[in-house]
Specification:
By secondary structure, the protein is mainly alpha-helical. It has one domain. The protein contains 5 helices and no strands. Helix 1 runs antiparallel to helix 3 and helix 2 crosses helix 3. The radius of gyration is 16 Å and the shape is elongated. The C terminus is likely disordered.
């Protein structure tokens, strides 16, 4: 019982996270694509990646929603978050000027803190 509740809470939070980020990317597609264009790793594939990422995030959220596919969704979440973490680490270590496409709550934080690279 307690284990199921924890899995439900984690899955629900991940669904919210992935839907929020997918919608944010789709609603501000041009800005998101422009930021990806500046990435040395993505560059010329920015248009494809800018569409593939929100679609993948929506797919992961869908997998998490249904109990029969939840395990696949949890694995997808793990892989997506690992790739994102490695990408961020690469950008922080090897890119001198980081473009910032922070959205939502982070956008307000960025404005208040006057972050150097944003």
């Amino acid at each position: 019982m307690k284990r199921n509740l924890i899995i439900e809470i984690i899955s629900s939070l991940l669904i919210l996270l992935f839907l929020y980020t997918a919608l944010g990317k789709l609603l501000d597609y041009v800005a998101f694509k422009n930021v990806l264009n500046k990435s040395p790793l993505i560059g010329g594939k920015a248009a494809v990646v800018a569409l593939a990422l929100p679609i993948t995030e929506g797919l992961i959220a869908s997998l998490l929603f249904f109990p029969r596919s939840r395990l696949w969704g949890l694995w997808g979440s793990f892989v997506a978050m690992t790739i994102f973490t490695l990408y961020l680490a690469y950008r922080i270590i090897f890119t001198p000027n980081l473009p910032c496409s922070c959205g939502g709550v982070l956008k307000q934080y960025r404005k208040n803190m006057k972050l150097r690279y944003c």
